[in-house]
C-alpha cells in the first residue's frame, strides 16, 4: 500500500467516526518551549491543557515532525528518521481509553477491502503502563488480545509527558512482530527492532508540574477533562505494509537512495557502512527540504542550526560515498517528486527552496575544502603528541576560522579514533558569545535576508559565501 493510500485511509476512517480533519501545522512550533514540532499533539497542546476551548471535540491529523535527538540513530536502526509524519487521533474530553483502543485495533486489523490496513492480529503486541490495569483489561477482555502478548512496562516507555509542565498520563503501545529474521522472540519489552513500535496511545489524565526529565516530576492533579492523544508513524506503517526492511526503503524515501546511488555509483545493499550513509542521505535530504519549505534557513542557532547540521550531514555522507561536486540540486528534484504529491506547497515554493539549499551546499563545500585539510593536520599533530584528544582550542579554531560545526569536528575526529574536548570548546564559544553581546556593532550584522542567498547562488561555482556570518544571529 502506497504512503498516499495509507494517509487517505487514516483520515477517512477517523472522519467517518466524527473527527475533524486538521491539516498539518508548520514544523516551526508555535510554542516557546519547542524549536520544532516533534509530535502530532503539539498544535493541540492549549486544548489539552484547558487553556483554550477546542473548536471540536474529536480531531485527526497527519503532522510533519522533526526529532533531532534521534539523529544519531538515523540509518542505523530500521525505524528512526529525523523527519517523519505522525498520524494521530485526538479526543478533547470526549472518548477515553476504551474507544481509543478499540478504534486503533479496528483500523489496523480490518481487511484492506473494508478500508482498513489488514494487519494480521496475531503479529500485534501490546504494551501498557505497569499500573494501568484498566488499559490492560480492555486489551485482554474487550479486544481479546492473548495475555502473553500484552506486556507491562515502566515510566520510561509507557508514561508520556513532554519534559516540561503540561499534560501527561499513561500510554499503551501497539507493536508489530516482524518475525525471527529480525531477532530473538520476547516481545517489545526485550526487542524493539523485531517488535516495531507503531502506534502510541496516550491517555492524558494528569497535569505535570516542574521536575526533571521523563520520570522525576510532580503530578499536580487530574486534567480538567480526560483526553486522548495518539501517534502512529506513517513511515513505519508503510514499511510494514510495503514489506521492506526499514523506513528509508518505502515509496516516499527509496527514490532518494536510488538517486544517491546514481550520483555516487555506490549501489544500495553492497556494504553495511555505505548503506547507512545512503539512508542518512535519504532522511536528511527529506528533512532539509521540509524544514526549508516551512521557512527555516540555515544558521548557527536554534532551529537554523538543526537545519544546517542535517543538511551538511547529508552532503558529507554523499562525499563519504564518493561524490566530489554539488549534489543538492539533483537530490532536491527527487525529494520534490516524491513529497510534492502530498505537499503541493513545496512545488510552488521550489525556486526559493532551491536557492537556500544550493547556497548552503556551496558554503559547506568551501568550508569542507579548507577545513578538512586543517582538521587532518590537527589530527596528525595530536596523534604525534601521543594524545587522543583534540583540544578545545583546536575545535574552536576549526569552528571560528574555518566554519566547521562542532558536530562535524566530533564526527570526523571520531572517524580517526580521536575524542574532542567538547567542554573546552563550549567554554570558548561562550566567551566569544559574551564578547559579541557586549559589542553593539555585532548586533547590526544580524539582518540577513534571502537576497544574501540569492547573490551567492547567482554567482555559481566559485563563491565567497558571506551569508555564513550574516546568518549567525538570525535565529537567536
Ligand atoms: P521509539 O521507541 O521507536 O524511538 P518513540 O517511543 O520515541 O519510538 P513516540 O514518541 O511514542 O515514539 O511517537 C509516536 C510514534 O511516532 C511512534 O510509535 C512511531 O511510530 C513514530 N516515531 C517516533 N519517532 C520516530 C522517528 N524518529 N522516525 C519515524 N517514526 C517515529
Ligand atoms: Mg524514540
Ligand atoms: Mg518507544
Ligand atoms: Mg512510544
Automatic annotation (TrEMBL):
Cofactor mode of binding and number, as noted: Binds 1 zinc ion per subunit.
Top-rank taxon: Bacteria
Domain Alanyl-transfer RNA synthetases family profile, first and last residues per copy: 1-476
Signal peptide: none
Transmembrane segments: none
EC number(s) reported in the record: 6.1.1.7
The entry's keywords: Aminoacyl-tRNA synthetase, ATP-binding, Cytoplasm, Ligase, Metal-binding, Nucleotide-binding, Protein biosynthesis, RNA-binding, tRNA-binding, Zinc
Catalyzed reactions: tRNA(Ala) + L-alanine + ATP = L-alanyl-tRNA(Ala) + AMP + diphosphate
Main location class: cytoplasm
Cellular compartments per GO CC: cytosol
GO BP: alanyl-tRNA aminoacylation
Cofactor(s) needed: Zn(2+)
Compartment(s) of residence: Cytoplasm
GO molecular function: alanine-tRNA ligase activity; aminoacyl-tRNA deacylase activity; ATP binding; tRNA binding; zinc ion binding
Record remark on domains: Consists of three domains; the N-terminal catalytic domain, the editing domain and the C-terminal C-Ala domain. The editing domain removes incorrectly charged amino acids, while the C-Ala domain, along with tRNA(Ala), serves as a bridge to cooperatively bring together the editing and aminoacylation centers thus stimulating deacylation of misacylated tRNAs.
Function recorded in the entry: Catalyzes the attachment of alanine to tRNA(Ala) in a two-step reaction: alanine is first activated by ATP to form Ala-AMP and then transferred to the acceptor end of tRNA(Ala). Also edits incorrectly charged Ser-tRNA(Ala) and Gly-tRNA(Ala) via its editing domain.
Similarity comment: Belongs to the class-II aminoacyl-tRNA synthetase family.
Name the UniProt record assigns to this protein: Alanine--tRNA ligase
Organism, as annotated: Actinoplanes regularis
Lineage, top ranks: Bacteria, Bacillati, Actinomycetota, Actinomycetes, Micromonosporales
Gene giving rise to this polypeptide: alaS
